Amino acid sequence: MTGLEKIVQEILDEAESAAGQTVSAAEKEAAGIEEEARKSSGQQAEEILRASKEAAGEILKRAQSSAELKKRQKILQAKQEMIRDLIGKAREELSKLPEESYFDVILKVAAKASLPQKGEMILSPEDRSRVPANFSTRLAEVAGKKGGSLTISEETRNLNGGCILIYGGVEENCSFDALFEAERERLTDRVNELLFR
C-alpha cells in the first residue's frame, strides 16, 4: 500500500469511526428522547386518569345527592297527602256527627265567634230543618255570656256544615270549610307531629 492509500484509508477509518460515534450518539439521544416521551406520556396518562376519577367521583356525589333529594321530596309528598287525607276525613266526620253532637259543635263555634252585640245565625237548609228544640235557648245563652244576642235567621245558605254569623251586615263565616281552611296550617302541623315525630 502506498502512502497515499494509507492516508486515504486512515481518513476513511477516521470517518467511519466518527460516523459510528455519531450514529451511536444519535441512537443514545433517540433512546433518551423516546424514554422521556414514554415518561411524559405516562405522567399525562396518570394525570388524565386522576382527573377522570375525580370527575367521576363528583358526578357520583351529585347523582347520590339528587337521588337523596328526590327521595326526601317523595316522602314529604306522601306525608302531605296523608295529612290532607286525614284532615279531609276529620272534616267529613264532623258533618256525620249525631245531631246532638253536631249542634253542640255549632254552639261551640258560635261561642268562640260571637260578639257583644245583636246578631243572627244562618244555617244550611238541611241544618235549619233539623235544629233541636232547645238550640235557640242555648244559642241565646252562649251569646249572652259575651254580652250579645244571637237568633236563628230564617235565611239559609248552601253551607257544608257550620254557620254564618251576621252582625249589622258584617258576616263572620263559621262554616266548617272556612274554619278548616283558617286552621289548615295549624292542623297540618299538629297532624304532622302526631303521625311523624
Automatic annotation (TrEMBL):
<dbReference type="InterPro" id="IPR002842">
    <property type="entry name" value="ATPase_V1_Esu"/>
</dbReference>
<dbReference type="InterPro" id="IPR038495">
    <property type="entry name" value="ATPase_E_C"/>
</dbReference>
<feature type="region of interest" description="Disordered">
    <location>
        <begin position="18"/>
        <end position="45"/>
    </location>
</feature>
<comment type="similarity">
    <text>Belongs to the V-ATPase E subunit family.</text>
</comment>
<dbReference type="Pfam" id="PF01991">
    <property type="entry name" value="vATP-synt_E"/>
</dbReference>
<keyword id="KW-0813">Transport</keyword>
<keyword id="KW-0406">Ion transport</keyword>
<protein>
    <recommendedName>
        <fullName>V-type proton ATPase subunit E</fullName>
    </recommendedName>
</protein>
<feature type="compositionally biased region" description="Basic and acidic residues">
    <location>
        <begin position="26"/>
        <end position="39"/>
    </location>
</feature>
